[in-house]
Amino acid sequence: MVTTTELPAQPRDQRPVRRIGMRQRLGRWDVKLSPYLFISPFFILFAVTGLFPLAYTAVVSIHKWNLLTGQGPLVGLQNYIDVLHQPFFWKAMRNTVSIFALSTIPQVILALVIAAVLNANLRARTFWRMGVLVPYVVAPVAVALIFGQIFSDQSGMVNAILAKVGIDPIGWHSNVLASHLAIATMVNYRWTGYTTLVILAAMQAIPSDLFEAAIIDGASRVRQFFSVTIPMIRPTLIFVIITSTIGGLQIFDEPTMFDQQNSATTAGGADGQFVTVTMYLYQLGWGSQNNLGRSAAVAWLLFLVILLISLVNFWFTQRIASDSGAKRRARKVRS
Amino acid sequence: MRKSRKVWAAAAGLTGIALVATGCSSGGASSSQTSGGKVTLKVQTFNEFGYADLFTEYMKDHPEVTIISDKAAKSDDARASVKNAIATNTVTDDIVAADVDWMPELLASSSFFADVASDSNKGRWPDWKSAQATDSSGKLIGLGTDSGPQGVCYRKDLFAKAGLPTDRAAVAQLLGGSSATWDQYFATGQKFMAANTGAAWFDSLGALAQVANNQQAEPFESKSDDKITVADSGSSAQKIFTMLTSHTDQSAHLAQWTDDWTKAFAGDKFATVMCPAWMTQIISGDAPDQTNWDIADVLPGGASNWGGSFLLVPAGGAHATEAKALADWLTDPAQAAKVFVKFGNFPSQVAAVKDQSVTSKTDKYFNNAPTGEIFSNRFSAVSKQPYRGSHYFDINDQFGKALTRVDVDKTDTPDASWQKFLDAVKQLS
Predict the structure, then answer these.
(1) In the Cβ-directed half-sphere of A182, how many Cα atoms lie within 13 Å?
(2) Are B212 and B218 in contact (CB under 8 A)?
(3) Are B148 and B346 in contact (CB under 8 A)?
(4) How is B252-316 classified by DSSP, letter by letter?
(5) Could you check whether B3-145+308-377 and B148-305+385-426 share the same CATH topology?
(6) Is beta strand B305-312 parallel, antiparallel or unpaired with respect to B95-99?
(7) Which of B228, B286, B346, B404 is the most exposed place for a label (fewest CB within 10 A)?
(8) Domains of chain A listed by start with CATH number
(9) What SS3 state is found at B39?
(10) Which CATH superfamily is B3-145+308-377 part of?
């Protein structure tokens, strides 16, 4: 900067100086910009595959848009209004939230407990730790097929066992809550192991002197768990809860496959007992109506709901951990 | 409409949906390339069209043509891929196969496809088959491959147990022969139920509805103006709904394509099932050890067809002319007969149906029943094709669900379920 202001008087002599200036500038840019350049591939990729579709979906959602015949006239928020007036949308929303609650909440709690057990001094530790991940390897649709057999209304295993105990068979496909439970079971089967390992990794990163100090203070195992372990793994918990919230609200494969008769139309039961928002979205956009505009509106509504629930979760998880006051105590112990 | 295979193959399919949704179709841009006068044609099929041998034969006769078979894991993938091609206006396959279920959708974009009518295929199919692939301006966009004429499959042993005749011809007579009616079918069902064999008369109401609605000229919509007529009181669909739901007691309450249903073919759950030609493969596949299934040359309410497919040629393909020639050859009666003999896909070509190699075929599984002859008769008896308007498949879907709510789920009374059906239909228009 200094060089350029000082040298306008002698244009010819400037040359070498200018070259140095350019080099300097390049050098400075190199220092300043290179880091961004190096991390840019991710963001460019994200912009192309994440941000652009997001924005484009918004554009589609304010148009009348047929999947096959393409863009129609601009209709503003009409698609959103139409969707919000559909009772089926609210049914899908109810089911999604219900299946999400039935799967995510027990899953995280269960994963916490299993991780705590796995973190203890076990024989053949690696075997047990890898064991919990096995269901995760099974493809979701394969899980749906297996559990579809188990939860069959007439020939299923669960109803056969219930009959032995003297309980009337449950209509796993006709009863709303029963169907949600069955689907949540599939989700939990597949994801609990994964969540457990993430939490376990966080638990192992806790310095052992914290526990030693807690033991000296006379804290019981349970007390250690709530006052040391949980506060220390809070960032991981937030991560786990938010990712499983996103996954839970986008649930598609399991409920689609659960309605074996109508899996092609993603109906989710003859009365929409377990239709989810993503299934409804697929019905609108790729079903025989090909109404991509309305489908895009549902996608955006779902996006907003996920954002909202994630924020609530974030706030909630932060409160849980700090309310206990254990964090402060844990820090004190450390210093 | 081969849904059962759809259901099982859906395992692989859902990933396909994701791929299509993100626009990553496998072929990239148009696949056909010309190099030194050579032509490469890509043919997309699904399930089993039985074309592998025919491709080899065609390439031998036409050394300049190379055929690449692009078989989708299941029909839903193929459907998504065709729709994706139309939506993005790109040609990935030179020939695409389509189920009759998707034809109304594809006909709405008929300009994407080439007119495949030619002198060589004139009069090849009965009118009802060609009508399924003809758009409002009279352009034929699909060459018919197989069809699904229906008979009644029944369990000999259960019939004997109930004191009913077990011989094929006698069963056909029992159900009314060529003038079989639904009333007679249900009356026989009542007799069967009275014998207390422990089995039901049929699998589910939804299965019967597929037949009954296909017997109407205008099941849900008016042919003249495409208006939805199903909600009008006294519509044919309402009558069918009332008729079916008043016979719930004869049902095994097994929704088609569910695990319960597929398992039931091996057990003693129901005595009869409506049997399109392709259903015979499903029954023998689901219950290979059950030796008592047989088939009668009869259908309550008159002959009708269920399912069938077409070959379509995207007009924008680089080698549309060559593709048309290949598709025309593949759907030639001679080829269709070969496919039937080897794979059992029943032809839709008039000449093929009468072909000696087709009519003489028997099926060991069905106690050596002359399936070729039976389905040939059932095919020839089909005279009308139901009008399928722009909302046909949505309404048909809702109709099936309305019956499932009453028959299988038992969550609604017939009246309440019909009301829900009407509400759902109202949202379509």
Answers:
(1) 34
(2) no
(3) yes
(4) ----TTSHHHHHHTTTTSEEEEEEETTHHHHHHHH-TT---EEEES--TTS--EEEEEEEE-BTT
(5) yes
(6) antiparallel
(7) B286
(8) 2-61 (no CATH), 78-334 (1.10.3720.10)
(9) strand
(10) Periplasmic binding protein-like II (3.40.190.10)
B6 touches chain A (CB under 8 A): yes
SS3 B95: strand
Contact B317, B94 (CB under 8 A): yes
pLDDT in tens, B243-259: 999 999 999 999 998 99
pLDDT value at B26 more than 60:
no
Overall fold of domain B148-305+385-426: D-Maltodextrin-Binding Protein; domain 2 (3.40.190)
Q: Quick check: A171 contacting B, CB < 8 Å?
A: yes
Please report where in the chains the tokens 């109202």 appear, as a residue.
B426
Q: Which whole-number Å values give the CA distances from B37 to A158, B94, B316, B339, in the listed order? A: 63, 17, 19, 30
| Domain residue extents for chain B | 3-145+308-377, 148-305+385-426
Q: Which two tokens stand for residue A88?
A: 């089926």
- Residues in chain B closer than 8 A to A171 (CB atoms): 409-410
Task: Enter the tokens of residue B332.
Answer: 């030639």
Whole-angstrom distance, CA of residue A298 vs CA of residue B353: 48
C-alpha dihedral sign at B280, B286, B291, B293 = negative
The answer, for A168 touching chain B at a CB cutoff of 8 Å, is: no
Separation CA B179–CA A122 (nearest Å) = 76
Q: B239 and B183 in contact (C-beta within 8 Å)? A: no
DSSP state of B113: B
Q: Which of residues 283-342 of B touch A (CB under 8 A)?
A: none
ipTM over 0.90: no
Mutation pick from A89, A154, A253 vs chain B, by most beta carbons of B within 10 Å, is A154
Within a 13 Å sphere around the CA of A198, how many CA atoms are in the beta-carbon half? 20
| CA nearest to A154, candidates B186, B268, B5 | B268
Compute φ and ψ for B327, nearest 5 degrees.
-65, -40
The tens digit of pLDDT for each residue in B93-115 reads 999 999 998 898 899 889 999 99
pLDDT at A260: 87
Instruction: Judge whether A57 is closer than 8 Å to chain B, CB to CB.
Output: no
pLDDT tens for A154-212 read 889 999 999 999 999 999 999 999 999 999 999 999 999 999 999 999 999 999 999 99
Phi-psi region of B286 (alpha: psi -120 to 50; beta: other; left: phi over 0): alpha
Q: What is d(CA B235, CA B364) in angstroms, rounded to the nearest whole number?
A: 42
CA distance B143 to B311: 5
What per-residue confidence (pLDDT) applies to B76?
81
